[in-house]
């Protein structure tokens, strides 16, 4: 007897195989995949702004070239992910409208300001480091186009993390003022980086289903813990102090214990009340409007080509 499409879907997920665009899939799976992929794409595109803020003020040609390459990579990650969302029937223009009208989210971390050039290093070290912790398991996500996008993105993400850490190592070998800048940037970005992994598992409405469908391979808290365990030795090697007096190795757990996270801050920033939310969305809206003529020209050209 041939399996029903539902049975085929369940068996594919259970066997750790990939669901492809041509396969039947439940509407709820499609909906949550579009939700996660679109918001991931929005995060990459908005994420260009904080660091882009420093391209014209990089302290050397080398730092400017590296930063330019990184910001361009983020744009590419966003376009890659919008393409993955389109394989599920989403429309890229609609997704952009949802972002600009704040009906879809992007990562809270990008609503914080970048006040000194040390922030560029700390974003590479902590934010891209957190992204790596979160994105490597997504290379095994059950939806094929998303998992394959992640494989390419993770390779570039490790360059992003290394360049940030190398920048900070250089500054930590510099003047006391440069060392103080690195510590101050670390103080500002540590807790918001932990919030990137989402609310605690008990307050995560999507995790259970996303784990059942193998969209997510680990829970928010598991990945957060993995990130803390990875970052503490890196901070020690760098010579900075992470701003958490409760951070301590727990031999019994085999992990670092860390202090309580202010979840009200994450809720506030997700709700739009972070330091830079309005500026980030307004800038995205303006860029979309300024680029309208390019999209129009491209579609007229495409129409002429198809007539030819
Ligand atoms: N910022 C904004 N929204 C957040 C958030 C955060 N840090 N954490 C959770 N949320 C939202 C979720 O989107 C969800 O809202 P929704 O239902 O309207 O989408 C709600 O809060 C509840 O959270 P859940 O844990 O239930 O939601 P998820 O199961 O989707 O988990 C996630 C959230 C861990 C971010 C997951 O969606 C995920 O892993 N996404 C893919 C990775 C990603 O988007 N990373 C963002 C950063 S991109 C980046 O760092 C690029 C790098 O180059 C710098």
Automatic annotation (TrEMBL):
Gene3D superfamilies: 1.20.1260.10. Residues 283-308 are annotated as: Disordered. Residues 283-293 have a biased composition (Basic and acidic residues). It comes from the Bacteria. This is 1,2-phenylacetyl-CoA epoxidase subunit PaaA. The gene is paaA.
């Amino acid at each position: 007897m041939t399996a029903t499409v539902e049975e085929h879907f369940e068996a594919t997920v259970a066997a750790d195989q990939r669901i492809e665009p041509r396969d039947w899939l439940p509407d709820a799976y499609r909906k949550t995949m579009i939700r996660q992929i679109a918001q991931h794409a929005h995060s990459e595109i908005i994420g260009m702004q904080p660091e882009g803020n420093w391209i014209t003020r990089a302290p050397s040609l080398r730092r400017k070239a590296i930063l330019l390459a990184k910001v361009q990579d983020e744009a590419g990650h966003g376009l890659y992910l919008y393409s993955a969302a389109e394989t599920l029937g989403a429309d890229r223009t609609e997704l952009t409208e949802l972002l600009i009208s704040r009906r879809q989210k992007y990562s809270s971390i990008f609503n914080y300001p970048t006040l000194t050039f040390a922030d560029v290093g700390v974003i590479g070290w902590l934010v891209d480091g957190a992204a790596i912790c979160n994105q490597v398991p997504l290379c095994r996500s059950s939806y094929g186009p998303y998992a394959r996008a992640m494989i390419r993105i993770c390779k570039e993400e490790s360059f992003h993390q290394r360049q940030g850490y190398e920048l900070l190592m250089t500054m930590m070998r510099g003047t006391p003022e440069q060392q103080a800048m690195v510590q101050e940037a670390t103080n500002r970005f540590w807790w918001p980086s932990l919030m990137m992994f989402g609310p605690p598992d008990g307050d995560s409405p999507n995790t259970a289903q996303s784990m059942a469908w193998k969209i997510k391979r680990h829970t928010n808290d598991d990945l957060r813990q993995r990130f803390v365990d990875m970052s503490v030795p890196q901070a020690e090697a760098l010579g900075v102090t992470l701003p958490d007096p409760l951070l301590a190795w727990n031999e019994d757990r085999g992990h670092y214990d860390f202090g309580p996270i202010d979840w009200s801050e994450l809720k506030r920033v997700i709700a739009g009340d972070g330091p830079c939310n309005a500026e980030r969305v307004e800038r995205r809206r303006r860029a979309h409007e300024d680029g309208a003529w390019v999209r129009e020209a491209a579609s007229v050209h495409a129409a002429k080509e198809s007539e030819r």
